[in-house]
Amino acid sequence: MGTANRVPFNGTKEQKAQLMEIIAELKDTKGALMPIMQQAQDIYGYLPYEVQKMISDEMGIPLEKIYGVATFYSMFSLYPKGKYQISVCLGTACYVKGSGDIYEKLQEKLGIEGGQCTADGKFSLDACRCVGACGLAPVMMINGEVYGRLTTDDIDGILAKYN
Questions:
Q1: Sorting pLDDT into bands at 50, 70 and 90, what band is 79?
Q2: pTM above 0.85?
Q3: How high is the pLDDT of residue 6?
Q4: 6: buried, middle or exposed (CB in 10 Å: 19+, 13-18, 0-12)?
Q5: Contact at 8 Å (CB) between 147 and 109?
Q6: 126 φ, ψ to 5°?
Q7: Three-state SS across the chain?
Q8: Would 82 disulfide with which of 10, 105, 124, 157, CB 3.0-4.6 Å?
Q9: Is the dihedral of CA 36, 62, 13, 71 positive or negative?
Q10: 9-65 tens-digit pLDDT
């Protein structure tokens, strides 16, 4: 797990106590790892190294296995979501019309990769498949607000609205 662009972990004692309670409750249940990881993500909003380590230590499961599960399943996130969640459609209609370039430009402008959050916690960036607005391709959404018929030249102006 790289530390580039990592948002500092700010877990609380209450969150840790809640996670420990869940682990104690499910620890001896066959197949408990996934439900524990899902509930840990519900508590913290994502699965940072520190949370994976707690699960590993309490369950006696190697950290590598927990990391493998967290990175294999798309439902898990290793990074928190930003105040402004940007989602770029990479479905066929959008991609053909240039959404790949928009996604790359956003990564460059924000200094993060897809799935990550800026260090200040302001923006997170994800790719998605078809949002059902193919007639507006290429499309991105910020906190559910749709921006369509985009070009890379539109990015600066749109991001400025959220500063």
A1: confident
A2: no
A3: 63
A4: middle
A5: no
A6: -140, 155
A7: CCCCCCCCCCCCHHHHHHHHHHHHHHCCCCCCHHHHHHHHHHHHCCCCHHHHHHHHHHHCCCHHHHHHHHHHCCCCCCCCCCCEEEEEECCHHHHHCCHHHHHHHHHHHHCCCCCCECCCCCEEEEEECCCCCHHHCCCEEECCEEECCCCHHHHHHHHHCCC
A8: 124
A9: negative
A10: 889 999 999 999 999 999 999 999 999 999 999 999 999 999 999 999 999 999 999
Hunting for tokens 């609205």 — which residue is that?
A: 161
Per the structure block, which two tokens stand in for 54? Answer: 């707690």
Amino acid present at 128: C
Q: Which structure tokens are listed for 151?
A: 């070009």
Residue 82 burial by CB count (10 A; 0-12/13-18/19+): exposed, middle or buried?
A: buried
